[in-house]
């Protein structure tokens, strides 16, 4: 789900915290959803002549393959970490999805902050396709949001997240580390 309003982000976080077990997807469900997502992304890429989305699809397919290979060798299924907060860099337009894919495969709930310096229309379009695959029940467990409020949203998410994945330079990392987990 794409969120640009601070109130919506906070209510989505509260909803997720209150209903974590309801949003859990099995390994097979997550893989099936990503496979469906690849097909929708491919159609979108071909319609919009966007080769970067095709590259993303190949990354997702490879990630699924590696995840299946890795989990087939495990004697006990690994548990998700919980709420993962992604802060992707802005130098690659679809970096938010590259960061999100592996965390989603592992069963985590994800909050992905979008940089204020990128054009968000393409991201919004892909998130709309993601919401179609997730369906009404699960779209609140995978949130992509803008942080227009001087890192206020980062402070809110950092307070409740279990893991942060930070892509960026030392200044970005230092700023985010000010918000305690």
Walk me through what this model shows:
The chain is of the alpha/beta class and 181 residues long. It contains seven helices and five strands; from the N terminus they run βαααβαβαβαβα. Strands 1-4-3-2-5 form a five-stranded parallel sheet, sandwiched between helices. The longest helix has 22 residues. The protein is globular and about 40 Å long.
Would you spell out the secondary-structure blueprint of this structure?
Elements lengths: L1 E2 L2 H13 L8 H22 L2 H22 L10 E5 L7 H11 L3 E6 L6 H18 L3 E5 L5 H9 L2 E4 L3 H8 L4
Parallel strand pairs: 1-4, 2-3, 2-5, 3-4
Helix pairs in contact: 1-6, 2-3, 2-5, 3-4
Shape category: globular
Q: What is the helix fraction of residues, given as a range?
A: 55-70%
Distance between the termini: 23 Å
Number of helices: 7
Structure classification? alpha/beta
- Would you report the number of β strands? 5
Strand order of the largest sheet: 1-4-3-2-5
Quick description:
By secondary structure, the protein is an alpha/beta fold. The protein contains seven helices and five strands, in the order βαααβαβαβαβα.
């Amino acid at each position: 789900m794409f969120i640009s309003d601070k109130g919506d982000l906070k209510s989505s976080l509260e909803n997720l915290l209150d209903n974590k077990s309801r949003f859990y997807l099995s390994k097979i469900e997550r893989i099936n959803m990503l496979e469906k997502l690849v097909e929708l992304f491919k159609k979108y890429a071909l319609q919009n002549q966007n080769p970067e989305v095709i590259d993303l699809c190949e990354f997702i397919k490879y990630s699924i393959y590696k995840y299946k290979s890795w989990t087939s060798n495990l004697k006990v299924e690994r548990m998700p970490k919980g709420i993962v907060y992604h802060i992707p860099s802005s130098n690659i337009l679809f970096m938010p999805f590259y960061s999100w894919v592996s965390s989603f495969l592992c069963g985590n709930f994800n909050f992905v902050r979008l940089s204020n310096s990128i054009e968000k229309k393409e991201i919004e379009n892909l998130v709309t396709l993601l919401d179609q695959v997730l369906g009404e029940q699960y779209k609140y467990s995978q949130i992509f949001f803008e942080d227009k409020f001087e890192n206020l949203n980062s402070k809110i998410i950092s307070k409740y997240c279990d893991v942060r994945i930070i892509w960026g330079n030392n200044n970005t990392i230092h700023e985010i580390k000010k918000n305690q987990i």
